[in-house]
Amino acid sequence: MSTFAIGWPKGQPGRGMTVYKIFELRPINSMPTANDSKGIFTQIYDFFASVKLALVLLFALAITSILGTVLPQGEPLEFYFQGYSPWAARMIQVLQLYDMYHSWWFQWLLLLLTINLIVCSIRRFSVTWKVVQAPPRSVSQALFTGLPFSQRFFLKKKDFDQTVWMDSLSKLHLGKPEPLEAPQGQAFYMEKGRFSRFGVYLVHGSILIIFMGALIGSLYGFKGFLELKEGEQRDRIFLKSGENQKMLDFTVKLDRFAISFYPNGMPKEYRSDLSFWELGQEKEKAIVRVNDPVTYKGITFYQSSWDQSPRSIALSLSKGDQETKLNLKMFQPVPVPESPYTLQAVRFNNNMADFGPAVGMVLLKGSEEIEGRWILVNQMGFHGNRLGEYKVRIENIEKSYVSGFQVNRDPGVWFIWIGCSLMLIGFMVAFYLSHQQVWVWIREEKDAKGTEKMEIRIGGTAHKNRLAFIRKMEFLTEKLSRGTHE
Fold this sequence. Notes:
By secondary structure, this protein is of the alpha+beta class. Helices cover 30% and strands 39% of the residues. Strands 6, 7, 8, 9, 10, 11, 12, 13, 18 and 19 form a 10-stranded antiparallel beta sheet that branches. A 5-stranded antiparallel beta sheet has the order 3-21-20-5-4. It has a 4-stranded antiparallel beta sheet with strand order 14-15-16-17, with no helix packed on it.
């Protein structure tokens, strides 16, 4: 830092004494800043109270929502490695973009936005509370001059009735008139919607409740799917993300599946009759239809799909003049008589490449797979209906229906419903209500002729939508001042 002085004559040049001005120059990097006087905790507090931070987080969440819409969610990792480049698939795996709404970084975004909302609300709440709790300002000429709305009119004293006038003020629907101290005459104060100033905090609180519900659902909820044949029961589901399976603390059984069709063959309606079992005892029965799910012990089952699966397959194997008939069940290997082979049905397709139903079959020798092939059911003369040295002809298939369910558990859904309801109320309070304040001052005056008159001044303000408030006050004041003269 360097110090120097500049002097100049006081008054006219060459007259009087010399006055010096002292200046101090500081290097730029040593100039004091606002942050230098703030502690580390204050700086952190200011950071989380920043509106810029809120905008950045909201923008990041918007980008995430778009990406989650474009990128398929809940698919197995193999789906992304097959459909995307190795680098992109690896990024999807590392950043958990296959299930981004349950990813660690999405939860951190929600946490940061939650802290930002809380800190912003705390910082601004104290100011709002002081405004709400502050007593009304006393009447004065300066008060009415500074209000957004202010009007003045006169009534003849003989026409002025205190009781009638107070009744008229009460009918303005601006709150109950409360007397105020006045330097002269009488003054009254009215207000309505004082607590509408807290509407924004109700919205902030509802967002926090929604975030809480989303976080609870993310940590303790799951989504999966379940397929059941008629008469089949299971106590586990396949998850759409993370682990492969999840055990349930009860068993689900498909008692019956029913389907009806339109004349063109399209499904019209399908339903599943379910029963829920615990410790070998049936606890509850339920019917699940499309758009009509059922919930048991907090887990919801949605009817999502249906299919047909072979119950038994009757076929014949031909080798030269020798023909062998077999009856197979899915996934159960059956020995081929007078041969070292076994035959197993492993897959079924209701319409293979528009050629009709087909059965995926495997010819085994011990544990070694000799050959596997799709066998077309309706194309008996198809040259590809062969396995090894055998020609295969499927004679009959007994099918059973398979019902598919989406299975969800979201323990935070009630928090989300509560938060959405509070948000709706908060928006209504914040946008449609306002804190309106009105002052009335009544004084006696005499004009130049000595006629006694009542001077009435009405002024008011509103913290939102002031233009509508002013129009309303002009209309109400016009009603009060009818028949008056100046």
